[in-house]
Structures are given as structure tokens and as C-alpha cells.
Design brief:
single chain; alpha/beta; Acyl-CoA Binding Protein; D-amino Acid Aminotransferase, Chain A, domain 1; eight-stranded mixed beta sheet; binds phosphoenolpyruvate; binds magnesium ion
Length: 904
């Protein structure tokens, strides 16, 4: 088993398609070598070694790969003409993590490894640049101390001991920027940093390069299991077993002076998808400086630089002198970079996210990967590449992260409303969208407020991976520092969250929990709005309007329809929801829950009267009042769905949900019904159940009170005839809930058919209708062959089916599911993502058994899973005719269904 793969000088043992073994970064470093892109030589330790490390620990790993690592270091030595640990000509390396998929800011990096008191002198002499040598040394001690020796602050109250030392030194010297530190200052810093290490860890800073190397390799493996990484994996459903690779590479230095630089770039605009090469760089800086937001990064292209300056309100003179583009400051290198980015995009046929370093006028690539992008950019880039003939239709569809389409469906700010609001600050349009919320400053507050259903905007000086939890629940993120590639910007784009970054003029005071913007002091809880597409920050709340769904979005949807084999319907209870869903491309209603209609206005009174009636006569009296209301509702829905199927489900919830529980409302009801309060109370109490979800609900109501089914069937058929008379093409499908025994369905179908025949007779007209059932009780799935004898269609109610298969109460599972996920007992919440191995097997059985009786049986799903991409694909592969989901998930399901067809 090969565990270490080398690369360098146009050769590589790995390849781009070996991401599972080499991680994304390692695989692409190898491939870049093979296609002639300049990459510093190095090697990759495989992800399998990470698994060994997690299971067996450091000693086992060192024993397993020591020989390979030594050989690989010798390989770098021979290509660079340096020697690891040599006093005269030392090799310095970087050590970086690299999982299969990128996890921005989650894992740790160590640069300049191999540095010690001798090496610094040698490098100082060799480069003729002592400042560079000592700057590299102090960075190394800091990074190694933070990452490998565990000195990185753990909470927001902790101070980084190195930053503390740094601040003291700068203050003593009266300087602001790191670049103003002189050689003597840097020497002093190294000394103070090492003392800080000794004080914090009780040990001397390791001087042996080999000891440093093993420390760093193991730290990368450790970082796979750190809290941030675990959280990121959980949010993105990345399995722990994947592990991370370790990349060790010869250092190239962006901090060697004014002919050196480092930067990051995107081959297209990651926010809008426009085909514009863009990126940021810093002269005389190293790696993390650009993303960390320590200094204001400059733009690579002249055009980008001018646009940036205009956004910041910086004059052309100031821009050109203080923040020149790379095209101006290093024209040759800029030309090389522009050629290289095109080569990489052409080769990988997707938008690339690059990291580069310029060492003394020579360009080196340190990374390339498919760039994270917003939903809008995802759609535009795929369609642009399709039209340019770079990719084919199937590839364009496969590139869709279905969930991300959600970003395109949501409202944007009302253009007119925006004109009237006050712009209080301006930053970079880091991640588009519109966000309105109350200001919070810390991640834990964001979480706590969001839990109380408050909309929050996180305001930070800059963000770090620790803020991820907060960003996840916030409506948007505003930062004072950081460019378009800062942590906040990259992560927000990945999440599809609105973000304005680098709003330099805002003054954040964490202690006072205030932010000063546009001459006003905002406190925690004050409302602001962010426009992630322009970088503007507005005072107060701003109204929004619906998103535009034409253009590339429509094109992708049409492509999806071309390949899909599954219809997407919607779960809608009102004509309004039905209309929204239709706009999103829904091909009918898969679930109309009739009970929601009973809660509105006066209806609940009639409903309560029905429930509390002592006998059938009383119930019929109340049902007569409900009939016209239901009929009106159904007419509205049939009209909105003209020409499409509409599945209406009969009453489902336990009756207890409809009766009043408070004394005041019970009194009111007693008066209305001419009952005593005691009678009402008694009647309400008698409806209480120990396990209402397993109690008197679903078709059990219709079987015990057939008059309810009669009223609903009549309302549906009469409504259908009424709209038919108005020229509407109506296709009613009546669905019986919670069937577990075929006799339940047979009894309900008899009632429905009898009522329908009666109505047809009364009206002298007919309409075609279907009678089907939900499959949501395990017994229904197991006896689906019998149930199919009666049913025209099945619709899997995977909410209840999950509840009953796991035995987890839908209403109470939240409490322990969170812990189950944390402990790894469950990877995902089964109420969100269909449990394919368990519940999914019942679904499979239900489909197969049902169709064994009735091969033409129409089958769909209407549980929440009908809009979750992995579950949609599962249903599509089982050969379902349709999936049904809430209106805003319709486009997501359409794309997921098409992807399932392509993957077949
Ligand atoms: C289901 O159980 O999956 C379903 C769609 O019905 P409800 O959520 O209304 O119980
Ligand atoms: Mg149900």
C-alpha cells in the first residue's frame, strides 16, 4: 500500500482523480505538475494514514511512514538543491491539510517549518535579506505554537499569547503595521515568542526540523478531529471516515521583499458567476495574511482594482499610489498568472479558486480547486460553460447543488424601498442576497436569538472559524475587515448567506456591544439590513420583493425537465401557495392538508361544535356549516391548478388539537353551544389522549364518524363540478390518511364513492376522480399488495412512517436527535433526510408490493423528504411517479430528480 506520493518538476505520482486518497489539494497539486503549471515540489501523505492515526495514534503512524517520508524529503532536497536541517543551506517546508472536499478555515497550516537559530542565519545570508529571514522565523514560531503546541485561543475571551506579545512590541515601538517591524524587532519577537511557548507549555521550542515535521504532520491529523472540523462536517454531511491528507511542500516566499507577493484568485466571479478573472494579493506577505484580513488586500486586475476603489469611495490617485493592481505593480507576473488561470480553467472545465505566491518575481501555484460559489453563480457558470461548448447538458445539471437553488428563490430588496433608506455603511459585496435582522456580535448570541425565532445579523470586526455556528443561523454577516476572499466571504458564499465584508468605516466595540455606522451608534438588537449584492448597509428594516426566475434559472429548470422521469408536485393548502408552487414548476398538488382550513376565522367554531356534539345529528348540523367553506377552498385550489392533478387528504389530526384548552375560550364556547362550562370542560378533557399521534386520528376518525368523510367528499366533488362548469380542467384525487388495514380504506372508499354518485345524480353531471391512500403506517407498507386492490394511488407519508418505524415522536425527537447526531449514533436527522436503510426499505417494499397487485399504480411521496435532494433521488430510483414538497423546494426537487435520472 502506497502511503506517500511525491510531485515536483513536471512529474507526479498522483493524479487529479485520486482525491479520495490524496485529498483535493494533493490530487490537484499532482495534476498541476503534470500539465506544466509551476508548483513547488513536495509530497502528499494519504487520507488512509489519517484513519490509522485516528485509530492507532502517533507511534503507529510514524513507524508506518517514517521511511517513506524520509525518502520524500530527499526528493524535495534533490529538486531544490537544499537540505532539511542543514545549517548552511536549509530546506524549509509548509505542512497543510487537505481533505477530499475543501473545508475552508477548518484545518490548520504551518509554514516555514525547518526554521531554527542556525537556519535563520543561513537564510538571511543566502537571501541577503535578514528582515525576511527573521519575519519568517517569527511567523513559524507563532504558527507552530498555535497549531502544533495548542496555544491557539480556545474561546473568544482568551487572548492569543503571540498577539499579546506582538501588540506590546508594536506599542513600545510606536508602530501600527507588521511591515514596519525592523530586523531587531523581529529578533526580539522570536525571543519573546519562544519564552511564551516555554511559559505556556513548560517545554522549549523544538529546534530539530524532524521533530518539528512530525509534530506538524500529527497536528494536521489531529485537526481533523477538532471541534471546528467536526462542526463543519456535520453541517455539510462529510463522513468522519474520509480523513485528511497532509501536504508537505518546499516553501516559496511571498515575504521576501517588494518583488514577492502572495494572493488568491477566482477564474470567474464567485458571487455573480460573471466570466471575470478576479482576486486579491499582498506584496511582501505570507499565506494567511490575505485571507486573515490583517492588511487590506489589493486587486489583481486593473479593472477589478478600479471597481473596488469606486465601491470604497477611494480616488483614482489614492488607489494607484496606495493600492495598485498586480497588473500595475508586477506586470510580468500578472501576465503569467492570467495565462495560468485560463489554462487551469480550460483544463478542469470549471471555475477555479487559486492560491499563488510570487517569490522574487517568479510565480508559483500552491493550490487550485473548483471554487465555492453562490447559487446564482452556480447556475450562470454552468449555463455559460454549456453555451460555450465546454461542458454538456448532463454535466451542467450535475454541477447543480440542488439545495443552493434555494438562494435564487428568495426575495431581494424592493428597489423603490431601497432608494428611500439611509445607507449607513458600505463594504464589499461578498455574498449576494438581501438580509434584514437585529444586530448581534457573538456566535453564541446569534444561536440563542435564532432559537427564539429572531432574525439576526452578525456584526464582527472579522470572522474566524469559531463564528461558524453563528453565521449558520444568521440572516447575514457584516464585517469591518477582510476582503472578498476573507473567511467570512468564502464561508458565507458557501452557505448562500448574504454577506458584506470589509466595511472599513464601521466601528465595532465588542465590550460595549455596539457598532458605530454612518454617525449613529447601534446597539445589540437594533435593526439593520444588508445588501450582499452591492455591499450596502441600510438603517432599519427594508421590505423585499420576489426573485426573478427567468433567464439562466429557467434554462436550468428546462434542462431538468428534459432529463427527469419524475414529476414534482407540491404540498399546498391554499390557492396562494398553490400559485407560488406552480410558478416554481409544480406539476400538481401532492398533498392538500384539509385540517389547516378549519383553523381560520369563524371556521374553528363550527369545527368545535362538530367535535363537541353528543350525537350524529349534532355533528351533521355543524358539518353542514363547514361544507360551503370547504367547497369554496377547494374551488380556489382547483382553479389555481387548472389542468393538473390535486390530491386532497381527508381530515387527519387528533380532534383534541381543535378544542380550546383555556378557560376563557371554553367559557365562550359553552355560551355559544348552550352548554355549561363543566360540560365543555368534560368534553374537551375526554378527547385528551396519552399518545395522540397514535390515537384517534387519520382514517380512524372517518371510520368512526363517516359523516365527516361524507361532508369532505361532497365538498370536493361539488367544488370540482362547480369549477368544471366554469371551464376549468379539474382532476381531483381523494386521499385517505393513516391507513394500516385494507378494510379501513375500503370503508372510506365506499363512503366517498356513494357520496360522489349522489352528487353526480343531483347535478346531472360527473367528473373523473381517484381514491387513494397515504402509506405512512408500517403495516400499510407491509400489506401494500392488499391495499393496492382498493387504492388508485399511494402517497408515502414519510413523516409518520419515520415516526412509527423508529418509534421517535415527531414532536419530541428534537430533544435527543441533536445529541444522537453529536454522538454519531445517527448521521442525519431522519425527519429531514430519509433513512434509506430502514424507513426507505419499507418504502421500497410498499412500492413493489403495491405494483405487484396493480402494475399501473401511481406512487408518490408527500412527507417532508419529498424536497430533500438525497431523498428525492432515492424515490426517483424506486420508480415513483412523483415527489411532492413545499412550494419553495419545488425547483430543488426538480433538479435532484433530473440528477437521479442522469446518474442511472
Ligand atoms: C406524513 O406523515 O408524511 C404526511 C405527509 O402527513 P402529515 O405530515 O400531515 O402527518
Ligand atoms: Mg402523516
Amino acid at each position: 500500500m502506497k502511503r506517500v506520493y511525491t510531485f515536483g518538476n513536471g512529474k507526479a505520482e498522483g493524479r487529479a482523480d485520486m482525491k479520495n486518497l490524496l485529498g483535493g489539494k494533493g490530487a490537484n497539486l499532482a495534476e498541476m505538475n503534470l500539465i506544466g503549471v509551476p508548483v513547488p515540489p513536495g509530497f502528499t501523505i494519504t487520507t488512509e494514514v489519517c484513519t490509522t492515526y485516528t485509530q492507532q495514534g502517533r507511534e503507529a503512524v510514524v513507524k508506518e511512514i517514517q521511511g517513506d517520508v524520509e525518502k520524500a524529503i530527499a526528493h524535495i532536497e534533490s529538486l531544490t538543491g537544499t537540505k532539511f536541517g542543514d545549517a548552511a543551506n536549509p530546506l524549509l517546508v509548509s505542512v497543510r491539510s487537505g481533505a477530499r472536499v475543501s473545508m475552508p478555515g477548518m484545518m490548520d497550516t504551518v509554514l516555514n517549518l525547518g526554521m531554527n537559530d542556525e537556519a535563520v542565519e543561513a537564510i538571511s545570508k543566502k537571501s541577503g535579506n535578514p528582515r525576511f529571514a527573521w519575519d519568517s522565523y517569527r511567523r513559524f514560531v507563532q504558527m507552530y505554537g498555535d497549531v502544533v503546541l495548542g496555544m491557539k485561543p480556545k474561546t473568544k475571551e482568551d487572548i492569543d499569547p503571540f498577539e499579546e506579545v506582538m501588540d506590546k512590541v508594536k506599542e513600545a515601538k510606536g508602530i501600527k503595521s507588521d511591515t514596519e517591524l525592523q530586523v531587531e524587532d523581529l529578533k526580539e519577537l522570536v525571543k519573546l515568542f519562544k519564552a511564551a511557548v516555554k511559559e505556556n507549555t513548560g517545554k522549549d521550542f523544538p529546534t530539530s526540523p524532524w521533530e518539528q515535521l512530525w509534530g506538524a504532520i500529527c497536528a494536521v491529523f489531529d485537526s481533523w478531529m477538532n471541534e471546528r472540523a467536526i462542526l463543519y462536517r456535520r453541517m455539510n454531511q462529510i463522513p468522519e471516515e474520509w480523513g485528511t491528507a497532509v501536504n508537505v511542500q518546499a516553501m516559496v516566499f511571498g515575504n521576501m521583499g517588494n518583488t514577492s507577493a502572495t494572493g488568491v484568485a477566482f477564474t470567474r466571479d464567485a458571487a455573480t458567476g460573471e466570466d471575470i478573472f478576479n482576486g486579491e494579493y499582498l506584496i511582501n506577505a505570507q499565506g494567511e495574511d490575505v485571507v486573515a484580513g490583517v492588511r487590506t488586500p489589493q486587486q489583481i486586475t486593473l479593472e477589478g482594482s478600479r471597481r473596488w476603489a469606486a465601491l470604497q469611495g477611494i480616488s483614482e490617485e489614492e488607489r494607484a499610489s496606495k493600492y495598485p493592481s498586480l497588473e500595475e505593480s508586477m506586470p510580468e507576473c500578472a501576465k503569467d498568472l492570467i495565462e495560468t488561470q485560463q489554462k487551469l480553467e480550460d483544463y478542469f472545465k470549471d471555475m477555479q479558486d487559486l492560491e499563488f505566491t510570487i517569490q522574487d518575481g517568479k510565480l508559483w501555484l500552491l493550490q487550485t480547486r473548483n471554487g465555492k460559489r453562490t447559487g446564482a453563480a452556480m447556475v450562470k457558470i454552468a449555463m455559460d460553460m454549456l453555451r460555450a461548448g465546454i461542458i454538456d447538458e448532463k454535466t451542467a445539471l450535475k454541477r447543480m447543488e440542488a439545495q443552493k437553488l434555494d438562494e435564487l428563490l428568495h426575495p431581494v430588496f424592493d428597489k423603490d424601498a431601497v432608494k428611500r433608506v439611509k445607507v449607513v455603511a458600505k463594504g464589499l459585496p461578498a455574498s449576494p442576497g438581501a438580509a434584514t435582522g437585529q444586530i448581534v456580535f457573538f456566535a453564541d448570541d446569534a444561536e440563542a436569538w435564532a432559537e427564539k425565532r429572531k432574525k439576526v445579523i452578525m456584526v464582527r470586526i472579522e470572522t474566524s472559524p469559531e463564528d461558524l455556528r453563528g453565521m449558520n443561523v444568521a440572516q447575514g454577516i457584516l464585517t469591518a475587515r477582510g476582503g472578498m476572499t476573507s473567511h467570512a466571504a468564502v464561508v458565507a458564499r458557501g452557505m448562500g448567506k448574504c454577506c458584506v465584508s470589509g466595511a472599513g468605516e464601521i466601528k465595532v466595540d465588542y465590550k460595549a456591544r455596539t457598532v458605530e455606522m454612518g454617525g449613529k451608534l447601534y446597539k445589540e438588537g437594533d435593526w439593520i439590513s444588508l445588501n450582499g449584492s452591492t455591499g450596502e448597509v441600510y438603517d432599519g428594516q427594508v421590505p423585499t420583493v420576489d426573485a426573478d426566475m427567468s433567464g439562466d434559472f429557467a434554462a436550468i429548470m428546462n434542462l431538468a425537465d428534459k432529463y427527469t422521469k419524475v414529476d414534482v408536485r407540491t404540498n399546498a393548502d391554499t390557492p396562494r401557495d398553490a400559485a407560488v408552487a406552480r410558478k416554481f414548476g409544480a406539476k400538481g398538488i401532492g398533498l392538500c392538508r384539509t385540517e389547516h382550513m378549519f383553523f381560520e376565522g369563524d371556521r374553528i367554531k363550527a369545527m368545535r361544535e362538530m367535535i363537541l356534539s353528543k350525537d350524529e345529528e349534532g355533528r351533521r348540523h355543524a358539518l353542514d356549516k363547514l361544507l360551503p367553506m370547504q367547497r369554496g377552498d377547494f374551488e380556489g385550489i382547483f382553479e389555481a391548478m387548472d389542468g393538473l392533478g390535486v390530491t386532497i387528504r381527508l381530515l387527519d389530526p387528533p380532534l383534541h388539537e381543535f378544542v380550546p384548552h383555556q378557560l376563557a375560550t371554553q367559557k365562550e364556547l359553552a355560551e355559544e353551544m348552550g352548554m355549561t362550562i363543566e360540560e365543555v370542560k368534560l368534553a374537551c378533557d375526554s378527547l385528551a389522549e396519552f399518545n395522540p399521534m397514535l390515537g384517534h386520528r387519520g382514517c380512524r376518525l372517518g371510520c368512526t364518524y363517516p359523516e365527516i368523510t361524507e361532508m369532505q367528499a361532497r365538498a370536493i366533488i361539488e367544488a370540482a363540478l362547480n369549477v368544471k362548469a366554469r371551464g376549468i380542467d379539474v382532476h381531483p384525487e381523494i386521499m385517505v390518511p393513516l391507513v394500516g388495514v385494507v378494510e379501513e380504506l375500503r370503508m372510506q372508499a365506499d363512503v366517498i364513492n356513494r357520496v360522489a354518485a349522489q352528487v353526480f345524480e343531483e347535478r346531472g353531471d360527473t367528473v373523473a376522480y381517484k381514491v387513494g391512500t397515504m402509506i405512512e403506517v408500517p403495516r400499510a407498507a407491509v400489506t401494500a399488495d392488499q391495499i393496492a386492490e382498493v387504492a388508485d394511488f399511494f402517497s408515502f407519508g414519510t413523516n409518520d412512517l419515520t415516526q412509527m418505524t423508529f418509534g421517535y415522536s415527531r414532536d419530541d425527537a428534537g430533544k435527543f436527535l441533536k445529541i444522537y447526531k453529536e454522538k454519531g449514533i445517527l448521521k442525519t436527522d431522519p425527519f429531514e433526510v430519509l433513512d434509506q436503510k430502514g424507513v426507505g426499505q419499507l418504502v421500497r417494499m410498499g412500492v413493489e408490493k403495491g405494483r405487484s397487485t396493480k402494475p399501473s399504480l401511481k406512487v408518490g411521496i408527500c412527507g417532508e423528504h419529498g424536497g430533500e435532494p438525497s431523498s428525492v433521488k432515492f424515490c426517483a430510483k424506486l420508480g415513483m411517479n412523483y415527489v411532492s414538497c413545499s412550494p419553495y423546494r419545488v425547483p430543488i426537487a426538480r433538479v435532484a430528480a433530473a440528477q437521479a435520472a442522469i446518474e442511472e
